[in-house]
Structure formats: C-alpha cells, structure tokens
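seq as requested:
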Amino acid sequence: MPPTEQLGPRTSVVVLLSFAPLLANADAGLVVLALPDIQHGLGMTLAGAHWVTNLYVLLIGGLQLLGGRLCDRAGSRRLLLLSLAGFAVASAFCAAAPNGPVLLLARAGQAVAAAVMVPAAMCILLTSVADGPERRRALALWAASGGIGSVAGVLGGGLAVSQLGWRWAFLLNVPVALAALVAARRLCPADQATRARGSAPDVQGALFLVGSLLALVYALVGTSERGLGPVTWAVFAVSGLLAALFLRRQARAAEPLLPAVLLRNRSLGAGALGIVFVAAATGPVVFLGSVYLQEVHGYAAWAAGCALLPVVGGVIVVGRICSRLLGRLGPRVPCLTGCALSGSGLLLLTQVSPSSSYATGLLPGLALVGAGLPFLWMACEIAAVSGVSRCAVGAAAGVVQCAGQIGAAVGLALAVSAYGAAGHGSGGPADPALLTTGLSRAFWVCAALMACAALTARFGLRPVRREAVAESAGYAPSSTGVAPDQSAVPVRG
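struct tokens:
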C-alpha cells in the first residue's frame, strides 16, 4: 500500500480527503451490482436501469469543471462540507425512491454533489501538501483510496444486494458521508480569502458540456441497436454542436470553466488527455469481465465481483513502488511502464474463448491491467497538477477529475458498441461463441485506446532533466518530478 507515513503533520487531513474518491468509486460499484434488482424492483426497462449508472457518470464528468471553478471562488472547505451533506441526502432519497423517474432524479442529485465533493477534496489536498515527495505520497494515497473504494463497492455491493436488498446499496453511503462530514468540520483547514466577487462561474458552459456528453454516449451506445442510420448521425451532430457551443462559450465567458492559464499549461493538457485515454481503455474491463464470467461461465454476481478484484486491487500492491519511481524518473517512464503492463493485459484478454478457464484465460490479463493502473493514474495526475498556480488549483482539480469520468463514460460506450456489433440483444439464450466474439472486439477497442495513452505519454509528457532526477533521488523537497512549466507557478503548501 502506498505509504501514509512521512506525509507530515497533515496526515489525518490527507487520509480524510482520500475518502472522496473512495466514496465515489464505492458508490459506482455498489450500484452496478444492484442494477438487475433495481430493474425488477421498480419495473424499469433494461436501458432505463443502465441510465441509473450512465446519468451519474456523465453528470459527474460534465460538472466537475464547474465544481472546480466553484472551489476557487467559494472556498474548497465550504463546498466539501455542503457536498458531503448533499451526497448523504441524495443517497437517502435514492434508497426511498418509489419508481424509476424519482430514482433517476435522486441519482442526478448524487452526481451533482459528487461533482463538487471530489474536486473540492483534491483542491484542499493540493493546497495543504507541499509540492515534491510529500505530494507524491499524498497522491499515491489518493489513487490507492480510489482502488480501495472500487474493491469495497464490489464486495459491499454483492453482500448488500444478496442479503439486504438493492436499497441498501444507496443507504450504505449515508453513514459514511455523514461521518466524513463530521471529520471534515474538525480537520480541514479554513478557506483562504477568496477573490473579489465578479461574474458567476460559467453554468451555461457546463450545461453545454453535459449535453454534449449525454448525446455522444447515447449515440455511441445506439450504434449497436440502430446502426449508423439517420437518427444516430443526428445525435452525433447534436453532440458536436453542443461541444462547439461549449468551446465558443469558453472563449467569451467572463469566468470560463477552463481559464486561459490552464490552456497554456502543457503538463496539465498532456496529463488530462492521458487520463482520458487511460480511463477509456481500462474503465470497461470490469463490466466486460463480469459479462464473460456470468454469461459464459455462470458465475453469480458476488463470485464475479471477487474474481475481478485483481483489476482494482493492483494499486494496493504496487502503489508504493510507483510512488518512488515517480520521484526518481518523473511521470513519462512510469506512465509508459503502466501502458506496457495494462496494454499487455488487454491484448491477453482479446484471446478469451468459451473454453478459457478463469485461471489461465482471464486472471493473467486482469492482473496485468491492475498492475499497470497505479503507474498510469499517478503519473498522469502528478503531471497534470505539478505546475498550476494557486488561483487556478480548483479548476485544475476539476479538469483532472472530469477527464477521468469522461474517459470512463466514452470508453464504456465504445466497448458496449463493439460488443453489441457482434449481434447480441436478440433476447434468446446467450450463445457463448457469439458472446466471446463481442468481448474480444471490445477488448481490442480497449487495447487501441491504451496505445493512444502510450503515444500521449511519449510525446506529451516532458522528460526529466538530469539535475531534477538527482534531486528527486534524494527526495529533495524542491523536486517536482517534471520539468517546470513556464506558464504557471508551482503550487506550494
């Protein structure tokens, strides 16, 4: 596990803040395993039940830029407290939902709260922990917490759904969020003086972004059902139009979601783009593996969740090694290492067949994907936030978190489309040969996205100068692990 020791006097704060990705990831795992029961319990269609997950992911992805900008203006601590309370209330409404529309509305409330909670927590972390080795260890713990949250979601979701019912998949969030709220009130540092009031953050731009993402994912998923017909192309056109309106709005808004200082920051751009490709390549693996184990080999949901733990548990095993490697070599080499590990795992997974056993046909690929993930996430996140001015740290945190959610949503949509293109959805008994053909296609899509991540690392992340490596080898407090960006001043705790 990444070290929590030597994080300095703010260790308890860092541990608390790491509950934000843990809570968000655990909620995703809890709800995914509960979807079949939600569908039957509320009389929803299969597509409607999947929007319980899609709506949450897409709203978080589209609104985290706005959440990050609100942190710069209103104060990260204040927004963290409000979002934790809102997440608890929305989770309770989800658990009590009498029908599908109410559940989707409450789920949207959860997403809005999480879209503020995660960037607010990361913003406090970035401004509380000094740049250099201390921040690398803090971000390692942050990444590990996300992995632990995924594990907890899979295990807790399987137990809650099988023993207590699907509503407990939402109720479990309530005491955790309230406990984090009480701890945050005591431990998180007070907000610094915010900037003078001016124009409000760009809410209209955020709505354009959310609309573009919803249309894009709807069109991608629809290609497996409707093909590339007029309706699909029309939805793609709507997505493109809304994306163009978003970019136009950013160029004209008084308080854009993407400040000009961030657009000039090469490290942030390369790190965020890397996160998009990494999330798109690895996000569908758990879903695809679950389909394979349950449909081809007849695993129960609980057993499938346990079998997929190597994907999300790798960060706990190799996170400490990755943290030290980042300190000595900077982000490019660890990111390329992660691409090689996870890419190899994805290529192995393309070879699945109906006769493949778990131990020889699935486990090696899952383990390689899980081993590469810590290198990828930590390298890209450190590259993205290492050279951001204090006045824009909230926006940068929003960009990083938004990139991950957008990548995961788009990657899953592409994988589902490739899987469905093999001819599924007839409603009859599942044909194992047809299932594995679709899964193989989907894993090839994931492997291609991982190749894009490797190209981004090779040509986007800057190499480390020799003197920087010499400094970081001794864990000098001034080392950042990347070449300094001339367009921004490094954040100092």
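The chain has three domains: 9-188, 202-255, 258-475.
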